[in-house]
Each structure stands twice: as C-alpha cells, then as structure tokens.
Specification:
The protein is of the alpha/beta class. Helices cover 35% and strands 21% of the residues. The protein is built from eight helices and nine strands. It has a nine-stranded mixed beta sheet, with helices on both faces. β2 and β3 form a beta hairpin. α1 crosses α7, α2 runs parallel beside α3 and α3 runs parallel beside α4.
C-alpha cells in the first residue's frame, strides 16, 4: 500500500442551496467537482424540499450562518475557485457578494432565478442586488435566457438576440458572460464573450427530458476547470462538453424530470 503523501487537489467552493432530490444545487455541484478531480466544499444558503416533480418548500439560512460557513472554509482551507447558485434573498446576495470581494479566486455566478419546474428560487426584491452587487464580482456569469430576461429585460427568441443579451449582462460588470441558449430550438448553442472576443459553442440537442441540474452542473464544471488553471474560454468549452455528455446520459427518477448523469464518464 502506497502511503506517500499525495498532492492536494485544487479546491472549489460552491455557495448554493440544497436539492434533496440530489439532481441540482449543492449535490450536483459536489458531484461535478468530484468528476473533475477537484476537492469540492460547500456553503449552504438554503434547504429545499425538492424531487423530480418540483420544489415543495424552501427555507433560507440566516446570513450569519452563510458568512460563518464561508469564512470557516476559506480562512483555513483556501479556494482556487468559487461558484454561486441559489442565493434566495437580497440579504444573502449582498452577504455573499461582500465575501467574494475579499476572496482572491475566480468566481462563476449562476444567477439562479427559477427551478427547472418553474418554481421561484430568488425573491424579486433580490434582483437589484444581483445586478449591482453579485454580477460585478463574477469572472463568468452563466445566465440562461429566462434569467437574462429577468435581470436585463432583454428577451431572446433566436441566436441573433444572444449578442444583445450578452451586452446587457456585461453592462453589470462580470468579466465574461456565458449566455446559455438551451431554450432555443435547434442545436444547443451558447455564446461566451467578454465584449471583445466571442466564442460560439454548439452541441447537438439530445432527445432526453431528464435535464434537471444542467445549469448548476455547467457552472460547477467551469469553476472546476478554472481552479485547475484553464483560461475562461477553455474552461467553458470543457464544461460544455461535459454537460452535453451528462444530458445525453440523463436518467429517469420518480415521476417527473430526472437528473443529468454527473458520472457519465465513469460508467
């Protein structure tokens, strides 16, 4: 048995809500990080009662509990990247933004607004805090088209509108915007841009309704690759490839929408 000390893997912190069904949220984030060979750590912002049919209840944690978790991990263990997901309220958004401003690591912001089933996961009163406090802290922001509309008012109904959506998101201050066009017809196309260079990422659309956790998984994959030293365009391309495979391998759970398969490369 080899007992030599092993190198410490890159460390990635997710700041997000729990999904009791295991397909999205903290659970998806940690599975994705494990699949990428990094050490995943978590700051829990909310607990949800959630399954394949939807969200039956959600309870946010106090800001002091979120702050204590974050400081506990970052001050002792350190991080090479941070990913944010469900933050629920303006108070939690502002608390997390304040913590991120004091952290020297790339940040991937998934501005979660609603669940896959349409359940609200962010209070309407928190939108301004996301725009003015959270997005400026992001190395990469990863909104889908519904979240773009919620945050900017820009409604996209085709690829031609994705540039306009990216400009509107970049105006709030993230270094890069990844506009996810998965809700459009045709191939799954995303646009990554920092306002000067553009990267269009295309993948075939898989005929699989079991896509719960797609957004969480993509953002966590980007964070994991950034922690490993990849540049943003390379990290996003790698994440897109991983998520495309995970969607293709998504499986049924319960009576509704099942999750993507985070372990598809290992099965």
């Amino acid at each position: 048995m080899d007992i030599r000390p092993r190198a410490v893997p890159p460390r990635v912190l997710t700041v997000a809500g729990s999904d009791s069904g295991g397909g999205a949220g903290i659970q998806a984030d940690l599975k994705t990080m494990l699949a990428h060979g990094v050490h995943g750590m978590s700051v829990l912002t909310a607990v949800t009662a959630q399954n394949s049919l939807g969200v039956q209840g959600a309870w946010e944690l106090p800001a002091e509990a979120v702050r204590a978790q974050y400081r506990s991990v970052v001050d002792d263990i350190g991080v090479q990247a941070v990913k944010t997901g469900m933050l629920a309220s303006a108070e939690l958004v502002e608390t997390v933004a304040e913590l991120l401003a004091d952290t020297d690591a790339p940040v991937v912001v998934d501005p979660v607004g609603v669940s896959k089933h349409g359940d609200p996961l962010l209070a309407a009163s928190a939108l301004e805090s996301v725009r003015t406090k959270l997005l400026p802290a992001a190395t990469v922001a990863t909104p889908n088209l519904d979240e773009v509309a919620q945050l900017t008012g820009v409604v996209v109904d085709g690829e031609a509108g994705m540039r306009r959506a990216a400009d509107a998101v970049l105006a709030f201050g993230p270094r890069w915007a990844l506009i996810k066009g998965g809700h459009l017809a045709g191939d799954a196309v995303d646009l990554l841009t920092d306002g000067s260079e553009e990267h269009w990422l295309r993948a075939p659309r898989h005929d699989n309704r079991h896509t719960h956790g797609t957004g969480c998984t993509l953002a966590s994959a980007v964070a994991a690759s950034l922690a490993q030293g990849m540049a943003v365009p390379e990290a996003v391309r790698a994440a897109k490839e991983y998520v495309t495979g995970a969607i293709a391998a998504g499986f049924a759970l319960g009576g509704g929408i099942g999750p993507v398969d985070h372990a598809w490369r290992h099965r």
